[in-house]
Amino acid sequence: MFSGCGNNQYDFQYSKNHHTSSFNIISSTVPQTSETFASDICVVSENVLSENISMEENSAAGLFDVKNSEVIYAKDANEMLYPASLTKVMTALVAIKNGNMDDILVASDNVRVNESGATAIGLKAGDTMTLNQALHILLINSANDVANLIAENIGGDIETFVQMMNEEAVRLGATNTNFKNPHGLSDSNHYTTVYDMYLIFNEAIKYDIFNEIIHMQTYETVYYDSRGQEKDVSIMTTNQFLRGNYTAPDNMTVVGGKTGTTDMSGHCLVILAKDTAGNPYIGIILRASSRDLINQEMIQMLAEINN
């Protein structure tokens, strides 16, 4: 068991067409395991386990020391799984990189989501809001119609934006990831890994606006319908640590993160935590069986930092 960093250069770095799976976007509908590779970033080649952490058999997880580029814990971190709304981390990242916070986004009929139980704020054709507002609603409330709104306006259409998401994944070395939509609702060919999610989230936290939003417990704003009438939004974070329902171990603080849940994915969670010295850590769990269990398992992982 080991983790490591490297600065070696490769002629076929991140090629989508190379036959080796580490350098290929794998279009398989069956979750499987594939070794990861990323230049200048620590990699996980084997499980890095701890007797202090009781992780579900079907769950995959990882805990990463961002400052020291150290893998503290890893279980099935290269297994391709459904990410649910953790997808929206990449949606936000691509939007931040390609848009401006004061851009006005206009909804079309394409923003509607039809999946039963899917979170939405009820956008209708002609509704408008800024990208700044949309990112807050996307990351705090996890509204799926807002994910479509961002994608259509930043990419020109949803399909082009999804292509941008996949291109960004390749650029980051997240080569065992394939996105089919900007929200993470059910699609058998929409997947990522714990390690790839680390790469994506690690890039997202480089942006102040992303960090600001994931730290927020509540958000209120006003957007407008096609007639210019105000529509109020008042939302609360889905992060149970920020809501005070779970407490991180002593000397650790959960700064923020993203949750996700679908029938296909189970419960998913990525968090940014800091120790008393302000050093950052990224914790990720995919395919947990319940909300309570995923938060308890995250607490166990964070406790490993002080051991």
Strand order of the largest sheet: 4-3-11-10-9
Please tally the β strands and state the result.
11
Strand content: 15-25%
- Residue stretches low in confidence (pLDDT < 50, at least 5 long) are 1-39
Given helix and strand content, the structural type is alpha+beta
- Number of discrete helical segments: 7
Name the average pLDDT.
89
SSE ordering: EEEEHEEHHHHHEEEEEH
**Can you tell me the overall shape?**
globular
Q: How would you characterize the largest beta sheet?
A: 5 strands, antiparallel
Work out the helicity level. 25-40%
What does this structure look like?
The chain has helices at 87-98, 131-140, 144-155, 158-172, 194-204, 208-214, 291-303; strands at residues 3-4, 43-44, 60-65, 70-75, 104-106, 128-130, 218-224, 230-236, 252-262, 266-275, 280-288. With 307 residues, it is an alpha+beta fold. The strands form 4 sheets. Strands 4-3-11-10-9 form a 5-stranded antiparallel sheet, sandwiched between helices. It has a two-stranded antiparallel sheet with strand order 1-2. Strands 5-6 form a two-stranded antiparallel ribbon. Helix 1 (87-98) runs parallel beside helix 3. The longest helix has 15 residues, at 158-172. Mean pLDDT is 89; it is low at 1-39.
